[in-house]
Specification:
The protein is an alpha/beta fold. It has helices spanning 16-28, 45-48, 70-73, 84-97, 186-195, 222-230, 232-241, 260-273, 276-282, 291-308, 312-318, 334-337, 385-388, 400-403, 435-456, 465-480, 510-522, and strands at residues 7-12, 33-36, 104-105, 110-116, 121-126, 131-139, 161-164, 178-182, 201-206, 212-214, 329-331, 343-347, 353-356, 360-363, 368-370, 373-376, 391-393, 422-424, 430-431, 458-463, 505-506, 528-533. Strand 8, helix 5 (186-195) and strand 9 (201-206) form a beta-alpha-beta unit. Bound molecules: flavin-adenine dinucleotide (FAD) and ligand NA7. Residues 8-224 form the FAD/NAD(P)-binding domain.
Length: 536
């Protein structure tokens, strides 16, 4: 039996993924779709992360959609990387251009989604108490949208403000203030570079030292912008076939196959050109996979820290010793910032935070760091974090949290067994790459799968256990070829206390991932079971 539902599809989230899913399903498939977004505006990451210095660290010509040429021909971006406010304006323009706003309900969180097995529909409950039903549920919750907020004794006593970078308040101006920042990932280092020029004093609380390279941000020339427009099709073809999808050719040259002098020349050239992904994947083909190659790159960056940072003790604390195997970080002058008289580095490995007081943060050595604002750049409960804050129940009332108790899994990053017609964008074990092209890839595939289900007259499409297990294994194998599991980071869930460390990405590259999706679709979706018959 199938019932008439309120919507054909409900999309949760209105970031890059939710916006494109709404466009694809409503404007191209002709479905009746409603998107729900907890925030007061569209944009997802770029709505929430308004901290000083926020910008993409993938270059602007590929940190965008490819589906609509108009968007590049009429875009106003002028720098190599796009600042937060411009990405947000861009996403708002996409929504307007494709008339999506009328079907996006803002300020509305989805609290639960329960699958009705006999009727083949999802029963969705919103945080305003309203409910609706839908045949398809597309979760575009964001892989980095559930904030990690550490708790410290005495936190409530602090007389200043505590903010997370992922929920930066519109009214907060740090100019002339005593600012502390905990966390030195992509976000923390971007913040530090900008905040040092604004704050009266900036205290950087660092847990793990980081390998950073310059972003090389600069204004684009008219010629470059014209080249992006003229080379549009070729650029996107290359992006889709590449590994990290960042708009450059990855190197295939093993680092140890060249002389030390040549290696240093290549690293120096990449350092001058800027960009973290280019440094890790464009210099040599095995920085992320071969320990000796990795050590050569790490050693080069360590040498730069020594050269740049004037105080030897600060340089020592800033210098990482573990492999260079996290998502590569780039920014504008991070190490140089520590030469400023108004910036202090505190190593939390040497002096952990003991407590907070009305005045600020006290470290184990008894020092009280006086602050007006404490910024938590402490990252996110990545990938499955946003799923775990919701009550999602599939067939037989199965709770997604129980389903993923040994770590999150999926079939191809988009579906999971026991949860029919639930399609995830950037679900666990999606491709590790620049994300907008990954999002477009998945949304297109989900739309095609929905079309296939409709054509068959099926009421539901669901991943099989076997297919999901095989994909999980493929992802584990792909991660095992890299050095990434050797270092603790959000990529494996290691940043969240108590979270089970597991593989959460496919490391075989976007090109290989897309080829696999294509193969599955062309073979008629082995790995997907089509259930029931849809009454017209
Ligand atoms: P999001 O943009 O996170 O959107 C998800 C939306 O879902 C959010 O608005 C959230 O409010 C909403 N939501 C979640 N749960 C619910 C619920 N239950 N009910 C209602 N709404 C809900 N990626 C790159 O590839 N390159 C970069 O350079 C890059 N830079 C980044 C910089 C920062 C500071 C951050 C935080 C992330 C960055 N990322 C980058 C990752 C970025 O998240 C993705 O590129 C992309 O924006 C993800 O889009 P999304 O739509 O999947 O998720
Ligand atoms: P990250 O990369 O997870 O970085 C978070 C930082 O916060 C990192 O330096 C962490 O140290 C630190 N951290 C996390 N928890 C704590 C606690 N409890 N105490 C002290 N320090 C802590 O998040 P980002 O937001 O920077 O980047 C995430 C992605 O979003 C990134 O790839 C961009 O695409 C944007 P650690 O290294 O774990 O020791």
């Amino acid at each position: 039996m199938t019932i008439k539902t309120d919507f054909d599809a409900v999309v949760i989230g209105a970031g890059f993924a939710g916006i494109y899913a709404l466009h694809r399903l409503r404007n191209e498939l002709g479905l009746k779709v409603r998107a729900f977004e907890r925030a007061g505006g569209v944009g997802g990451t770029w709505y929430w992360n308004r901290y000083p210095g926020a910008m993409s660290d993938v270059e602007g010509f590929v940190y965008r959609y490819s589906f609509d040429r108009w968007l590049i021909d009429n875009d106003v971006w002028r720098t190599r990387y796009i600042p937060q406010a411009q990405i947000l304006a861009y996403l708002e323009a996409v929504v307007e251009r494709h008339d999506l706003g009328k079907d996006i309900q803002l300020n509305t969180g989805v609290e639960s989604a329960v699958y009705d097995e006999s009727g083949h529909f999802w029963d969705v409950t919103l945080d305003d108490g309203n409910r609706c039903t839908t045949r398809y549920l597309v979760t575009a919750l964001g892989p980095l949208s559930s904030r990690n907020i550490p708790d410290y004794p005495g936190r409530d006593l602090f007389a200043g403000r505590i903010v997370h970078t992922g929920a930066w308040p519109a009214d907060l101006d740090i100019t002339g203030k005593r600012v502390g920042v905990i966390g030195t990932g992509s976000t923390g280092t971007q913040f530090v570079c900008t905040a040092a020029g604004l704050a009266e004093h900036l205290t950087v609380f660092q847990r793990s030292p980081q390998y950073c390279v310059p972003s090389g941000n600069r204004p684009l020339t008219e010629e470059e912008r014209a080249a992006y427009r003229e080379g549009y099709d070729r650029i996107w073809e290359q992006v889709r076939a590449s590994r990290v999808a960042c708009g450059f050719e990855e190197s295939d040259v093993p680092a140890m196959s060249v002389t030390e002098e040549e290696r240093r020349r290549v690293f120096q050239e990449a350092w001058e050109q800027g960009n973290g992904f280019r440094f890790m994947f464009g210099t040599f083909g095995d920085i992320a996979t071969d320990p000796a190659a990795n050590e050569a790159a790490a050693d080069f960056i360590r040498g730069k820290i020594k050269e740049i940072v004037r105080d030897p003790e600060t340089a020592r604390r800033l210098t990482p010793t573990d492999p260079y195997a996290k998502r590569p970080i780039c920014n504008s002058g991070y190490y140089e910032t520590f030469n400023r008289p108004n910036v202090t580095l505190v190593s939390l490995k040497e002096t952990p935070i003991r407590e907070m007081t009305a005045r600020g943060v006290v470290t184990e050595d008894g020092t009280e760091h006086d602050l007006d604002v404490l910024v938590l750049a402490t990252g996110f409960d990545a990938v499955d974090g946003s799923y775990r804050t919701m009550d999602i129940r599939g067939r037989g009332g199965r709770d997604i949290r129980t389903h993923w108790k040994d770590g999150p899994t999926s079939y191809l990053g988009v579906a999971t067994e026991g949860f029919p017609n639930l399609f995830m964008v950037l679900g666990p074990n999606s491709a590790f790459s620049n994300l907008p092209p990954g999002i477009e890839t998945q949304v297109d595939w989900i739309a095609e799968l929905i079309e296939a289900a409709e054509e068959r007259g099926a009421a539901a499409a669901e991943a099989t256990r076997q297919a999901e297990d095989e994909w999980t294994l493929a992802c584990q194998i792909s991660a095992g070829h890299t050095l990434f599991p050797k270092v603790d980071s959000w990529i494996f869930g290691a940043n969240i206390p108590g979270k089970k460390n597991s593989v959460m990405f496919y490391f075989g590259g976007l090109g290989a991932y897309r080829a696999r999706l294509r193969e599955v679709a062309e073979a008629g979706y082995p790995g997907v079971t089509f259930h029931g018959a849809r009454s017209s």
